[in-house]
């Protein structure tokens, strides 16, 4: 039962519970008109303590498409937050007006605090660099929808794997499925943190390799998850010059990839995927954004218990 | 004058890792004590090479959980009428609330004033704890 629950980190839900959400998302995608009134009379509060237009729009669109309404703030300066109200008090007050709340906050653990004091479901829409569970749901639904499965896959992550929380969450979440292999492509200074290797990969006996150049292994991948890697993240200029082109996905690299490999990216992209790749049917990052809205629709419906 | 060796009524904190006595002394605020307190450093020990001991001539209320956090090998003897009335063996607590604050500047505890600071034990051997809000790891024995 997901009714009344909070989503603070991706592992809050079991594989079966995720499946429940994905199945509902499938139904919504197939027949959106059947769901356009299910949240009639329900109110979603968006508490954005730092701006994130993309994520906020995705949640707002999701709620409107379910027939619900939205209240909230996207600038803490213009709200009672500016007067120094605590998260605990804000959520208790909002709980008197709204049926469900989405929170984005610059401090790590803020949505968790809210969930402790809230009488309505709280969804974490990003807490600093800590967690972003609805992005993980988005990634999982996209893979499930396009590949038709979440097991028996070789997944490549490319770019900044050290600070990329969406990468950490997705590795964690995918590790629960059967026969998953990871190929981790990053410069030495941006490798996946030790604790992910120890606590997630090695502990669960998951096969993984760490390499520096994408072109060395792209042919093995079923999924390629691209992330931004900024020049200033490198410690030395030489490494950057030596490797910079390895982290830009272009047509030439795509030529060596499997015919049914898919390319994902949490967006926004800067230059890590050349625009020429957009035309490739394997480029799925815009579809992914769309799945993000559908999975949020399913999540809201489940937490409200209307479906 | 109270003898260093025996006390009438109070607490003896024994088997403190050599060098840690002063930390515990400070942590318990014994520098401000108005009763007799003895800090013995580098005493010979059967268990370890050397140990520190703190003797407190007063029935003070000690938060044993905190001491377990700093060093689970410590033993606490409650003394009454010059004999050991009770021996308390410490362990590493699984959950610690409002003892030590999270050091992560990005943690919500740095802005939200009235919430409890809660940590869960992650690795007993290393004495590693995880903040319940931000997941940052802390090792208290280093504090
Ligand atoms: Zn913390």
Automatic annotation (TrEMBL), chain A:
Read off the InterPro entries from this record.
Asp/Orn_carbamoyltranf_P-bd, Asp/Orn_carbamoylTrfase, Asp/Orn_carbamoylTrfase_sf, Asp_carbamoyltransf, Asp_carbamoyltransf_Asp/Orn-bd
Protein name as catalogued = Aspartate carbamoyltransferase
Whom does it interact with, and what assembly results? Heterododecamer (2C3:3R2) of six catalytic PyrB chains organized as two trimers (C3), and six regulatory PyrI chains organized as three dimers (R2).
Name the source organism: Gottschalkia purinilytica (Clostridium purinilyticum)
- The parts of the chain that form a coiled coil are none
Record's family?
Answer: Belongs to the aspartate/ornithine carbamoyltransferase superfamily. ATCase family.
User: What does this protein's UniProt record list under function?
Assistant: Catalyzes the condensation of carbamoyl phosphate and aspartate to form carbamoyl aspartate and inorganic phosphate, the committed step in the de novo pyrimidine nucleotide biosynthesis pathway.
Catalytic EC class? transferase
From TrEMBL, chain B:
Alphabetically list the UniProt keywords: Metal-binding, Pyrimidine biosynthesis, Transferase, Zinc
Q: Name one GO biological process term.
A: 'de novo' pyrimidine nucleobase biosynthetic process
Q: Which domain of life is it from?
A: Bacteria
Which SUPFAM superfamilies does the record match to this protein? Aspartate carbamoyltransferase, Regulatory-chain, C-terminal domain (SSF57825), Aspartate carbamoyltransferase, Regulatory-chain, N-terminal domain (SSF54893)
Domain called Aspartate carbamoyltransferase regulatory subunit N-terminal: residue spans:
3-90
UniProt protein name: Aspartate carbamoyltransferase regulatory chain PyrI
Q: Which InterPro entries match?
A: Asp_carbamoyltransf_reg_N, Asp_carbamoylTrfase_reg, Asp_carbamoyltrfase_reg_C, Asp_carbatrfase_reg_C_sf, Asp_carbatrfase_reg_N_sf
Q: List, in alphabetical order, the Gene Ontology terms for molecular function in this entry.
A: metal ion binding; transferase activity
Q: Does the keyword Transferase apply?
A: yes
- What Pfam family does this protein match (any one)? PyrI
Q: Which GO terms describe its cellular component?
A: aspartate carbamoyltransferase complex
Which organism was this protein described from?
A: Gottschalkia purinilytica
Q: Which residues does the UniProt record annotate as the domain Aspartate carbamoyltransferase regulatory subunit C-terminal?
A: 95-143
Q: Does the keyword Zinc apply?
A: yes
């Amino acid at each position: 039962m997901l009714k009344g629950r909070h989503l603070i980190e991706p592992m809050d839900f079991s594989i079966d519970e995720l499946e429940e959400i994905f199945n509902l998302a499938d139904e919504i995608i197939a027949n959106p008109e059947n769901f356009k009134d299910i949240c009639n009379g329900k109110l979603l509060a968006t508490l954005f303590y730092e701006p994130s237009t993309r994520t906020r729009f995705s949640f707002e669109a999701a709620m409107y498409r379910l027939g619900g309404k939205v209240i909230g703030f996207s600038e803490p300066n213009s709200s009672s937050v500016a007067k120094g109200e605590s998260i605990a008090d804000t959520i208790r007050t909002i709980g008197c007006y709204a049926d469900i709340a989405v929170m984005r906050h610059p401090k790590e653990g803020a949505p968790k605090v809210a969930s402790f004091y809230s009488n309505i479901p709280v969804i974490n829409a990003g807490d600093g660099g800590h967690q972003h569970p609805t992005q993980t749901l988005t990634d999982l639904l996209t893979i499930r929808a396009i590949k038709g499965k979440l097991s028996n896959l070789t997944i490549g992550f490319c770019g900044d794997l050290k600070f990329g929380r969406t990468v950490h969450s997705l590795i964690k979440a995918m590790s629960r499925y059967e026969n998953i292999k990871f190929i981790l492509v990053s410069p030495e200074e941006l490798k996946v943190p030790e604790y992910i290797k120890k606590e997630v990969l090695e502990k669960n006996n998951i096969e993984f390799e760490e390499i520096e150049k994408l072109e060395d292994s792209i042919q093995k991948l079923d999924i390629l998850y691209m992330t931004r890697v900024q020049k200033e993240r490198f410690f030395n200029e030489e490494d950057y010059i030596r490797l910079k082109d390895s982290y830009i996905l272009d047509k030439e690299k795509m030529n060596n990839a499997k015919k049914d490999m898919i390319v994902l990216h949490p967006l926004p992209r800067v230059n890590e995927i050349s625009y020429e790749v957009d035309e490739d049917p394997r480029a799925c990052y815009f579809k992914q954004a769309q799945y993000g809205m559908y999975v949020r629709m399913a999540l809201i419906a489940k937490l409200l218990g209307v479906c | 004058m109270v003898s260093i060796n025996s006390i009438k009524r109070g607490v003896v904190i024994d088997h403190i890792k050599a060098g840690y006595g002063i930390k515990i002394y400070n942590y318990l605020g014994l520098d401000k004590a108005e009763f007799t307190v003895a800090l013995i450093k580098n005493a010979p020990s059967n268990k370890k090479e050397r140990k520190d001991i703190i003797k407190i001539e007063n029935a003070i209320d000690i938060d044993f959980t905190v001491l377990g956090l700093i060093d689970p090998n410590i033993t606490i003897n409650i003394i009454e009428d010059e004999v050991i009335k009770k021996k308390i063996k410490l362990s590493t607590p699984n959950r610690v609330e409002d003892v030590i604050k999270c050091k992560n500047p990005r943690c919500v505890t740095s802005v939200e004033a009235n919430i409890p600071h809660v940590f869960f034990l992650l690795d007993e051997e290393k004495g590693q704890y995880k903040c319940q809000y931000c997941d940052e790891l802390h090792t208290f024995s280093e504090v």
